[in-house]
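REQUEST ID: PR-0412
SUBMITTED BY: lab tech R.K.
PRIORITY: routine
TASK: structure prediction, single protein chain
INPUT:
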Amino acid sequence: MNKNELVHLHALLAQVAEEYADEGLATRDDFAAYHELGTTPMALRRSRADHEAATRALARTLARLSTDEIRGSDRELEESPAV
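STATUS: complete
OUTPUT:
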């Protein structure tokens, strides 16, 4: 993947992260590892390695949050009374 494609993926994942926060599925603290890196999709002068690290941090966090959300939904289904 070249840098332009990586920056595009970074921007897409950042948008998903924003949606998670808007929907109340995540907080800013959930993305602390990403924010500590200091590389946003708009930081075009940052290196490819910086964008890769930020993209991986976002992907890991979103995957964890998604898994937690799915597990929570499964528990709710199991706990709901049968009709």
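NOTES: The chain has one domain: 3-78.
REVIEWED BY: pending
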